[in-house]
Amino acid sequence: MTDTTAAAGGDKIRCDACPVMCYIKPGAAGACDRYANHNGELVRVDPHIVLERTVSHGGRLVPFQAGGDWDGKLVHEPSVFVTAIGAGTTYPDYKPAPFIVSSEVDGVDMVTVVTEGIFSYCGVKVKIDTDRYLGPETGTVRAEGEAIGHVTTSEYGSQMLSLGGVHHLTGGSKKEGRVTCDALMDLSNCKAVELTIDGGATVVVQAGRPPVVNGVAEERMRVGCGSATIGMFAKQWHGKVDEVVVVDDHITGVLSEHQAGKLLDIPDTGIKMKGRRSTPGRYFQVADPGTGWGGTNISDPLSVLGPFNAREARPGLTMLMVSTTGEHAAYYELDDALRPVERPMPPDLQFSVERIQENCEPALCTVLFMGGAGGSLRAGVTDNPVRLTRSVKDALTRVTSGGAPVYVWPGGGITFMVDVTQMPAGAFGYVPTPALVAPIEFTLKLSDYAALGGHMDHVRPLASLRENSEFRPMPHMPGRRA
Known about the structure:
This protein is α+β, with helices and mostly antiparallel strands. It is about 15% helix and about 30% strand. A hairpin with a 5-residue loop joins β19 (about 320-325) and β20 (about 330-335). Residues about 1-10, about 70-80 and about 465-480 have low confidence and may be disordered.
Protein backbone atom coordinates (compact mmCIF):
# COMPACT_ATOMS: atom_id res chain seq x y z
CA MET A 1 0.00 0.00 0.00
CA THR A 2 1.35 3.45 -0.83
CA ASP A 3 0.66 6.99 0.34
CA THR A 4 -1.70 9.15 -1.64
CA THR A 5 -1.69 12.94 -2.06
CA ALA A 6 -2.79 14.90 1.01
CA ALA A 7 -6.19 16.52 0.81
CA ALA A 8 -6.15 20.31 0.70
CA GLY A 9 -6.26 22.05 4.05
CA GLY A 10 -5.67 19.03 6.24
CA ASP A 11 -2.95 16.78 7.63
CA LYS A 12 -5.20 13.90 8.65
CA ILE A 13 -4.28 10.40 7.60
CA ARG A 14 -6.70 7.59 7.07
CA CYS A 15 -6.10 4.39 9.02
CA ASP A 16 -6.99 1.20 7.17
CA ALA A 17 -6.30 -1.25 10.02
CA CYS A 18 -10.01 -2.09 10.31
CA PRO A 19 -13.29 -1.40 8.50
CA VAL A 20 -13.94 1.83 10.48
CA MET A 21 -11.25 3.63 8.39
CA CYS A 22 -10.71 6.49 10.84
CA TYR A 23 -9.35 9.88 9.74
CA ILE A 24 -6.76 10.69 12.41
CA LYS A 25 -5.45 14.18 13.17
CA PRO A 26 -1.74 14.75 13.90
CA GLY A 27 -0.95 13.67 17.46
CA ALA A 28 -4.30 11.92 17.88
CA ALA A 29 -5.31 8.24 18.03
CA GLY A 30 -8.06 6.45 16.18
CA ALA A 31 -11.32 5.22 17.68
CA CYS A 32 -9.66 2.00 18.87
CA ASP A 33 -6.83 3.83 20.69
CA ARG A 34 -4.38 1.41 19.05
CA TYR A 35 -3.26 3.45 16.01
CA ALA A 36 -2.16 7.08 15.92
CA ASN A 37 -0.97 9.82 13.59
CA HIS A 38 2.66 10.46 14.56
CA ASN A 39 4.18 13.17 12.37
CA GLY A 40 2.05 12.08 9.43
CA GLU A 41 2.83 8.39 9.84
CA LEU A 42 0.38 5.67 10.94
CA VAL A 43 1.86 3.96 14.00
CA ARG A 44 0.88 1.47 16.69
CA VAL A 45 0.53 3.14 20.07
CA ASP A 46 1.29 -0.06 21.99
CA PRO A 47 4.48 -1.97 21.20
CA HIS A 48 4.90 -5.21 19.35
CA ILE A 49 5.48 -7.96 21.92
CA VAL A 50 8.57 -10.13 21.59
CA LEU A 51 8.65 -12.54 24.52
CA GLU A 52 12.29 -12.46 25.55
CA ARG A 53 12.29 -8.65 25.37
CA THR A 54 9.18 -8.58 27.53
CA VAL A 55 11.02 -10.53 30.23
CA SER A 56 14.08 -8.28 30.03
CA HIS A 57 11.83 -5.27 30.58
CA GLY A 58 10.24 -6.80 33.68
CA GLY A 59 7.05 -8.14 32.06
CA ARG A 60 5.20 -11.23 33.31
CA LEU A 61 4.89 -14.35 31.20
CA VAL A 62 3.65 -17.89 31.82
CA PRO A 63 6.00 -20.83 31.09
CA PHE A 64 4.99 -22.76 27.98
CA GLN A 65 5.92 -26.13 29.48
CA ALA A 66 3.90 -27.49 32.40
CA GLY A 67 5.50 -30.12 34.63
CA GLY A 68 8.82 -31.87 34.17
CA ASP A 69 12.19 -30.18 34.38
CA TRP A 70 12.08 -26.61 33.15
CA ASP A 71 15.34 -24.76 32.70
CA GLY A 72 13.74 -21.36 33.15
CA LYS A 73 13.71 -20.46 29.47
CA LEU A 74 10.43 -19.27 28.06
CA VAL A 75 11.31 -20.52 24.61
CA HIS A 76 14.15 -22.90 23.82
CA GLU A 77 14.70 -22.06 20.15
CA PRO A 78 14.86 -19.46 18.83
CA SER A 79 15.84 -17.16 21.70
CA VAL A 80 13.26 -14.58 20.56
CA PHE A 81 9.65 -15.63 19.93
CA VAL A 82 7.62 -13.19 17.85
CA THR A 83 4.03 -12.89 19.04
CA ALA A 84 1.19 -11.20 17.19
CA ILE A 85 0.54 -8.73 20.02
CA GLY A 86 1.09 -5.29 18.57
CA ALA A 87 1.92 -6.69 15.14
CA GLY A 88 -1.03 -5.13 13.31
CA THR A 89 -3.78 -6.51 11.11
CA THR A 90 -4.07 -7.49 7.48
CA TYR A 91 -7.20 -5.39 6.79
CA PRO A 92 -8.45 -4.97 4.06
CA ASP A 93 -7.41 -8.60 3.90
CA TYR A 94 -5.42 -8.93 0.71
CA LYS A 95 -2.12 -8.04 2.38
CA PRO A 96 0.38 -10.55 3.76
CA ALA A 97 0.59 -10.86 7.53
CA PRO A 98 2.51 -8.02 9.24
CA PHE A 99 5.39 -10.29 10.27
CA ILE A 100 6.51 -13.49 8.55
CA VAL A 101 9.68 -14.40 10.39
CA SER A 102 12.12 -17.20 9.63
CA SER A 103 14.42 -18.85 12.15
CA GLU A 104 16.30 -22.08 12.71
CA VAL A 105 15.14 -24.51 15.39
CA ASP A 106 17.26 -27.60 16.06
CA GLY A 107 18.71 -27.36 12.57
CA VAL A 108 15.31 -27.04 10.86
CA ASP A 109 14.30 -23.89 9.00
CA MET A 110 11.05 -22.62 10.52
CA VAL A 111 8.71 -19.71 9.90
CA THR A 112 6.27 -17.97 12.23
CA VAL A 113 3.46 -15.93 10.69
CA VAL A 114 1.89 -13.42 13.08
CA THR A 115 -1.12 -11.16 12.77
CA GLU A 116 -3.76 -9.55 14.92
CA GLY A 117 -7.09 -10.91 13.80
CA ILE A 118 -10.24 -8.78 13.77
CA PHE A 119 -12.83 -11.13 15.27
CA SER A 120 -16.52 -10.33 14.84
CA TYR A 121 -17.16 -14.05 15.28
CA CYS A 122 -15.81 -14.47 18.79
CA GLY A 123 -16.78 -14.79 22.41
CA VAL A 124 -15.65 -16.12 25.75
CA LYS A 125 -16.56 -19.26 27.64
CA VAL A 126 -16.58 -18.60 31.39
CA LYS A 127 -16.26 -21.29 34.06
CA ILE A 128 -17.29 -20.09 37.52
CA ASP A 129 -16.38 -22.39 40.39
CA THR A 130 -19.39 -22.25 42.69
CA ASP A 131 -22.31 -24.36 43.88
CA ARG A 132 -24.42 -21.28 44.34
CA TYR A 133 -27.30 -20.77 41.98
CA LEU A 134 -26.37 -18.15 39.41
CA GLY A 135 -29.45 -18.40 37.22
CA PRO A 136 -31.55 -20.72 35.07
CA GLU A 137 -29.97 -22.55 32.17
CA THR A 138 -30.32 -20.38 29.03
CA GLY A 139 -30.94 -17.37 31.31
CA THR A 140 -29.77 -14.09 29.78
CA VAL A 141 -26.49 -12.67 31.07
CA ARG A 142 -26.25 -8.88 31.09
CA ALA A 143 -23.59 -6.22 31.47
CA GLU A 144 -24.69 -2.63 32.05
CA GLY A 145 -28.24 -3.88 31.44
CA GLU A 146 -27.45 -5.15 27.93
CA ALA A 147 -27.75 -8.81 26.94
CA ILE A 148 -24.28 -10.18 26.18
CA GLY A 149 -24.76 -13.95 26.49
CA HIS A 150 -26.47 -16.74 28.39
CA VAL A 151 -26.06 -19.40 31.07
CA THR A 152 -25.18 -22.81 29.67
CA THR A 153 -24.70 -26.13 31.43
CA SER A 154 -23.80 -26.66 35.07
CA GLU A 155 -20.66 -28.76 35.31
CA TYR A 156 -19.04 -30.51 38.29
CA GLY A 157 -18.88 -27.75 40.88
CA SER A 158 -18.94 -24.99 38.27
CA GLN A 159 -21.43 -22.83 36.42
CA MET A 160 -20.74 -22.11 32.75
CA LEU A 161 -21.52 -18.95 30.80
CA SER A 162 -21.32 -18.37 27.06
CA LEU A 163 -20.76 -14.69 26.30
CA GLY A 164 -20.40 -12.68 23.14
CA GLY A 165 -20.80 -14.02 19.64
CA VAL A 166 -21.68 -12.27 16.44
CA HIS A 167 -25.39 -11.90 17.27
CA HIS A 168 -24.67 -9.80 20.36
CA LEU A 169 -21.82 -7.91 18.71
CA THR A 170 -23.64 -7.02 15.49
CA GLY A 171 -27.20 -8.34 15.63
CA GLY A 172 -28.66 -6.11 18.34
CA SER A 173 -28.66 -2.42 19.12
CA LYS A 174 -25.56 -0.26 18.80
CA LYS A 175 -25.30 -0.10 22.61
CA GLU A 176 -25.60 -3.88 22.93
CA GLY A 177 -22.74 -4.34 20.49
CA ARG A 178 -20.55 -1.79 22.28
CA VAL A 179 -21.22 -3.18 25.75
CA THR A 180 -20.63 -6.75 24.54
CA CYS A 181 -17.34 -5.74 22.97
CA ASP A 182 -16.22 -3.90 26.12
CA ALA A 183 -17.11 -6.84 28.37
CA LEU A 184 -15.37 -9.37 26.13
CA MET A 185 -12.21 -7.28 25.93
CA ASP A 186 -12.09 -6.67 29.68
CA LEU A 187 -12.66 -10.35 30.47
CA SER A 188 -10.03 -11.40 27.93
CA ASN A 189 -7.56 -8.91 29.41
CA CYS A 190 -8.16 -10.42 32.89
CA LYS A 191 -10.13 -7.44 34.20
CA ALA A 192 -13.13 -7.70 36.53
CA VAL A 193 -16.59 -7.44 34.96
CA GLU A 194 -19.90 -7.33 36.85
CA LEU A 195 -22.59 -9.49 35.28
CA THR A 196 -26.25 -9.92 36.17
CA ILE A 197 -28.31 -12.96 35.25
CA ASP A 198 -32.04 -12.74 34.61
CA GLY A 199 -33.82 -14.61 37.40
CA GLY A 200 -30.57 -15.16 39.23
CA ALA A 201 -27.51 -13.59 40.80
CA THR A 202 -25.09 -10.75 40.30
CA VAL A 203 -21.57 -12.07 39.86
CA VAL A 204 -18.22 -10.36 39.43
CA VAL A 205 -16.01 -12.37 37.09
CA GLN A 206 -12.25 -11.95 36.70
CA ALA A 207 -10.01 -14.57 35.11
CA GLY A 208 -7.82 -16.29 37.67
CA ARG A 209 -9.66 -14.76 40.64
CA PRO A 210 -12.47 -16.07 42.90
CA PRO A 211 -16.00 -15.21 41.74
CA VAL A 212 -18.00 -12.76 43.83
CA VAL A 213 -21.65 -13.86 44.00
CA ASN A 214 -24.15 -11.31 45.31
CA GLY A 215 -21.30 -9.45 46.99
CA VAL A 216 -19.76 -12.53 48.66
CA ALA A 217 -16.44 -13.92 47.42
CA GLU A 218 -16.37 -17.68 46.92
CA GLU A 219 -13.58 -19.54 48.68
CA ARG A 220 -13.80 -23.13 47.48
CA MET A 221 -15.53 -25.39 44.99
CA ARG A 222 -17.21 -28.63 46.00
CA VAL A 223 -15.21 -31.70 46.92
CA GLY A 224 -17.74 -33.76 44.94
CA CYS A 225 -21.47 -34.32 44.76
CA GLY A 226 -23.26 -35.53 47.88
CA SER A 227 -22.94 -39.15 46.84
CA ALA A 228 -19.23 -38.84 46.01
CA THR A 229 -18.62 -37.14 49.36
CA ILE A 230 -20.23 -40.07 51.14
CA GLY A 231 -17.96 -42.47 49.30
CA MET A 232 -14.85 -40.41 50.00
CA PHE A 233 -15.38 -39.97 53.74
CA ALA A 234 -17.52 -42.98 54.80
CA LYS A 235 -14.60 -44.70 56.58
CA GLN A 236 -13.78 -41.52 58.48
CA TRP A 237 -17.37 -41.33 59.77
CA HIS A 238 -17.71 -45.05 60.55
CA GLY A 239 -18.08 -45.59 64.30
CA LYS A 240 -18.24 -41.86 65.07
CA VAL A 241 -21.78 -41.02 63.96
CA ASP A 242 -24.88 -43.07 63.09
CA GLU A 243 -26.01 -41.12 60.03
CA VAL A 244 -24.59 -38.56 57.63
CA VAL A 245 -26.51 -36.48 55.07
CA VAL A 246 -24.48 -34.51 52.51
CA VAL A 247 -26.83 -31.82 51.19
CA ASP A 248 -26.41 -31.06 47.50
CA ASP A 249 -28.61 -29.35 44.94
CA HIS A 250 -27.88 -32.11 42.46
CA ILE A 251 -27.24 -35.42 44.25
CA THR A 252 -27.75 -35.53 48.03
CA GLY A 253 -26.06 -38.47 49.74
CA VAL A 254 -27.24 -40.51 52.75
CA LEU A 255 -24.60 -42.67 54.46
CA SER A 256 -26.75 -45.51 55.86
CA GLU A 257 -28.46 -46.16 52.50
CA HIS A 258 -25.40 -45.59 50.30
CA GLN A 259 -23.44 -48.58 49.03
CA ALA A 260 -20.39 -47.31 50.93
CA GLY A 261 -22.41 -47.50 54.16
CA LYS A 262 -23.73 -50.94 53.33
CA LEU A 263 -20.21 -52.30 52.79
CA LEU A 264 -19.22 -50.85 56.18
CA ASP A 265 -22.26 -52.54 57.82
CA ILE A 266 -23.79 -49.27 58.93
CA PRO A 267 -27.33 -50.11 60.09
CA ASP A 268 -30.49 -48.44 58.81
CA THR A 269 -31.48 -45.34 60.77
CA GLY A 270 -35.09 -44.88 59.69
CA ILE A 271 -34.25 -41.59 58.01
CA LYS A 272 -36.80 -40.20 55.57
CA MET A 273 -35.59 -37.89 52.81
CA LYS A 274 -37.57 -35.49 50.66
CA GLY A 275 -36.85 -35.32 46.96
CA ARG A 276 -36.66 -38.02 44.30
CA ARG A 277 -34.80 -41.20 45.20
CA SER A 278 -32.35 -42.41 42.59
CA THR A 279 -30.15 -45.36 43.48
CA PRO A 280 -29.80 -46.24 47.19
CA GLY A 281 -28.41 -43.34 49.20
CA ARG A 282 -28.69 -40.86 46.32
CA TYR A 283 -31.50 -38.28 46.10
CA PHE A 284 -32.33 -35.70 43.44
CA GLN A 285 -34.26 -32.45 43.88
CA VAL A 286 -34.30 -32.34 47.69
CA ALA A 287 -34.74 -28.54 47.42
CA ASP A 288 -34.75 -25.79 44.85
CA PRO A 289 -31.47 -24.26 43.63
CA GLY A 290 -30.17 -21.29 45.59
CA THR A 291 -27.26 -19.81 47.50
CA GLY A 292 -27.73 -21.81 50.71
CA TRP A 293 -26.64 -25.27 51.82
CA GLY A 294 -25.01 -27.23 48.97
CA GLY A 295 -26.26 -24.86 46.30
CA THR A 296 -29.88 -25.19 47.44
CA ASN A 297 -32.23 -22.49 48.68
CA ILE A 298 -32.37 -23.83 52.25
CA SER A 299 -30.86 -22.35 55.40
CA ASP A 300 -32.26 -25.08 57.69
CA PRO A 301 -30.95 -28.52 56.62
CA LEU A 302 -33.70 -30.29 58.55
CA SER A 303 -36.16 -29.02 55.94
CA VAL A 304 -35.00 -31.76 53.56
CA LEU A 305 -35.99 -34.50 56.06
CA GLY A 306 -39.30 -36.17 56.73
CA PRO A 307 -40.16 -37.89 60.05
CA PHE A 308 -37.88 -40.74 61.11
CA ASN A 309 -39.30 -44.27 60.95
CA ALA A 310 -39.95 -45.39 64.53
CA ARG A 311 -39.29 -49.05 63.65
CA GLU A 312 -35.63 -48.28 62.84
CA ALA A 313 -34.81 -44.99 64.56
CA ARG A 314 -34.14 -44.66 68.31
CA PRO A 315 -33.67 -41.84 70.80
CA GLY A 316 -30.05 -40.73 70.97
CA LEU A 317 -29.30 -41.59 67.33
CA THR A 318 -26.65 -39.18 66.06
CA MET A 319 -26.60 -37.42 62.69
CA LEU A 320 -24.17 -35.14 60.86
CA MET A 321 -25.50 -32.88 58.12
CA VAL A 322 -22.88 -31.18 55.94
CA SER A 323 -22.65 -29.44 52.58
CA THR A 324 -20.39 -30.46 49.68
CA THR A 325 -17.89 -27.71 50.49
CA GLY A 326 -17.97 -28.09 54.28
CA GLU A 327 -19.10 -24.47 54.48
CA HIS A 328 -22.26 -25.58 56.27
CA ALA A 329 -22.37 -28.33 58.89
CA ALA A 330 -24.51 -29.23 61.91
CA TYR A 331 -24.72 -32.13 64.39
CA TYR A 332 -27.99 -33.58 65.79
CA GLU A 333 -29.28 -36.19 68.23
CA LEU A 334 -32.81 -37.65 68.16
CA ASP A 335 -34.91 -36.89 71.23
CA ASP A 336 -37.50 -39.19 72.75
CA ALA A 337 -40.00 -38.17 70.06
CA LEU A 338 -37.39 -39.00 67.35
CA ARG A 339 -36.99 -35.36 66.44
CA PRO A 340 -33.48 -34.09 65.58
CA VAL A 341 -32.13 -31.65 68.16
CA GLU A 342 -28.96 -29.72 67.35
CA ARG A 343 -26.01 -30.35 69.65
CA PRO A 344 -22.41 -29.08 69.76
CA MET A 345 -20.26 -30.64 67.08
CA PRO A 346 -17.95 -33.38 68.47
CA PRO A 347 -14.27 -32.69 67.76
CA ASP A 348 -13.77 -35.80 65.62
CA LEU A 349 -16.70 -34.83 63.39
CA GLN A 350 -15.48 -31.24 63.23
CA PHE A 351 -12.19 -32.66 62.00
CA SER A 352 -14.02 -34.52 59.19
CA VAL A 353 -15.80 -31.30 58.17
CA GLU A 354 -12.45 -29.54 58.02
CA ARG A 355 -11.10 -32.44 55.96
CA ILE A 356 -13.90 -31.84 53.42
CA GLN A 357 -12.93 -28.17 53.29
CA GLU A 358 -9.26 -29.10 52.88
CA ASN A 359 -10.06 -31.26 49.87
CA CYS A 360 -12.00 -28.53 48.09
CA GLU A 361 -10.00 -26.71 45.45
CA PRO A 362 -9.94 -22.90 45.45
CA ALA A 363 -12.87 -21.33 43.61
CA LEU A 364 -11.72 -19.45 40.52
CA CYS A 365 -13.09 -17.89 37.36
CA THR A 366 -11.73 -19.29 34.10
CA VAL A 367 -12.07 -17.30 30.86
CA LEU A 368 -11.42 -18.92 27.50
CA PHE A 369 -11.38 -16.65 24.47
CA MET A 370 -12.92 -18.39 21.46
CA GLY A 371 -12.67 -17.16 17.89
CA GLY A 372 -12.80 -18.34 14.32
CA ALA A 373 -9.87 -17.55 12.02
CA GLY A 374 -11.76 -16.59 8.87
CA GLY A 375 -10.69 -16.71 5.28
CA SER A 376 -9.40 -13.13 5.27
CA LEU A 377 -7.08 -13.77 8.21
CA ARG A 378 -5.80 -16.96 6.60
CA ALA A 379 -5.18 -15.07 3.37
CA GLY A 380 -2.49 -13.15 5.23
CA VAL A 381 -0.63 -16.44 5.57
CA THR A 382 -1.15 -17.94 2.12
CA ASP A 383 -2.76 -17.04 -1.17
CA ASN A 384 -4.69 -20.34 -0.93
CA PRO A 385 -6.30 -20.10 2.55
CA VAL A 386 -7.80 -23.60 2.65
CA ARG A 387 -4.30 -25.07 2.61
CA LEU A 388 -3.55 -23.40 5.93
CA THR A 389 -6.64 -25.04 7.45
CA ARG A 390 -5.52 -28.42 6.18
CA SER A 391 -2.01 -27.85 7.47
CA VAL A 392 -3.37 -27.07 10.95
CA LYS A 393 -5.60 -30.16 10.91
CA ASP A 394 -2.65 -32.31 9.80
CA ALA A 395 -0.59 -30.94 12.71
CA LEU A 396 1.99 -29.48 10.33
CA THR A 397 1.21 -25.98 11.60
CA ARG A 398 1.11 -25.05 15.28
CA VAL A 399 -1.34 -22.33 16.29
CA THR A 400 -0.67 -20.07 19.26
CA SER A 401 -2.26 -16.88 20.57
CA GLY A 402 0.13 -14.37 22.08
CA GLY A 403 2.54 -17.27 22.42
CA ALA A 404 0.06 -19.32 24.48
CA PRO A 405 -1.06 -22.78 23.35
CA VAL A 406 -4.58 -23.02 21.94
CA TYR A 407 -7.15 -25.75 21.44
CA VAL A 408 -8.30 -25.99 17.83
CA TRP A 409 -11.77 -27.44 17.42
CA PRO A 410 -12.25 -30.38 15.05
CA GLY A 411 -14.34 -29.85 11.94
CA GLY A 412 -14.18 -27.09 9.39
CA GLY A 413 -12.24 -23.86 9.74
CA ILE A 414 -9.78 -22.82 12.44
CA THR A 415 -11.92 -22.26 15.52
CA PHE A 416 -9.70 -22.01 18.57
CA MET A 417 -9.88 -21.42 22.31
CA VAL A 418 -7.17 -20.02 24.58
CA ASP A 419 -6.88 -19.53 28.34
CA VAL A 420 -6.47 -15.78 28.68
CA THR A 421 -4.41 -16.12 31.87
CA GLN A 422 -1.67 -17.81 29.82
CA MET A 423 -1.25 -14.73 27.62
CA PRO A 424 0.80 -11.56 28.18
CA ALA A 425 -1.06 -8.62 29.71
CA GLY A 426 -3.04 -6.42 27.33
CA ALA A 427 -3.09 -9.00 24.56
CA PHE A 428 -6.60 -8.03 23.36
CA GLY A 429 -7.85 -4.86 21.72
CA TYR A 430 -10.93 -3.83 19.79
CA VAL A 431 -12.15 -1.99 16.77
CA PRO A 432 -15.41 -0.07 17.00
CA THR A 433 -17.19 -2.01 14.25
CA PRO A 434 -17.49 -3.58 16.98
CA ALA A 435 -15.09 -6.52 17.07
CA LEU A 436 -12.25 -7.84 19.19
CA VAL A 437 -8.65 -7.83 18.05
CA ALA A 438 -6.75 -10.91 19.18
CA PRO A 439 -3.25 -12.19 18.42
CA ILE A 440 -2.71 -15.38 16.46
CA GLU A 441 0.51 -17.02 15.30
CA PHE A 442 1.15 -19.90 12.91
CA THR A 443 4.46 -21.74 13.15
CA LEU A 444 5.62 -24.38 10.65
CA LYS A 445 8.57 -25.58 8.65
CA LEU A 446 9.73 -23.15 5.99
CA SER A 447 9.44 -25.88 3.37
CA ASP A 448 5.84 -26.61 4.42
CA TYR A 449 5.11 -22.89 4.29
CA ALA A 450 6.33 -22.72 0.72
CA ALA A 451 4.28 -25.81 -0.19
CA LEU A 452 1.01 -24.30 1.06
CA GLY A 453 1.50 -21.18 -1.04
CA GLY A 454 2.88 -18.89 1.64
CA HIS A 455 3.96 -15.33 0.98
CA MET A 456 7.63 -16.24 0.54
CA ASP A 457 8.57 -12.78 -0.75
CA HIS A 458 7.68 -11.34 2.65
CA VAL A 459 9.66 -13.77 4.81
CA ARG A 460 12.22 -11.89 6.89
CA PRO A 461 14.94 -13.32 9.14
CA LEU A 462 14.51 -13.13 12.88
CA ALA A 463 17.69 -11.08 13.15
CA SER A 464 16.06 -8.28 11.17
CA LEU A 465 13.75 -7.39 14.05
CA ARG A 466 15.05 -4.35 15.84
CA GLU A 467 14.17 -2.95 19.21
CA ASN A 468 10.77 -1.27 19.20
CA SER A 469 10.55 2.48 19.61
CA GLU A 470 7.76 4.19 21.53
CA PHE A 471 5.74 4.39 18.31
CA ARG A 472 6.23 1.69 15.72
CA PRO A 473 5.33 2.33 12.06
CA MET A 474 3.01 -0.33 10.69
CA PRO A 475 4.59 -2.77 8.21
CA HIS A 476 2.92 -2.74 4.78
CA MET A 477 0.63 0.00 6.13
CA PRO A 478 2.05 3.55 6.06
CA GLY A 479 -1.43 5.01 5.99
CA ARG A 480 -3.33 6.97 3.40
CA ARG A 481 -3.59 10.70 3.66
CA ALA A 482 -7.06 12.16 3.75
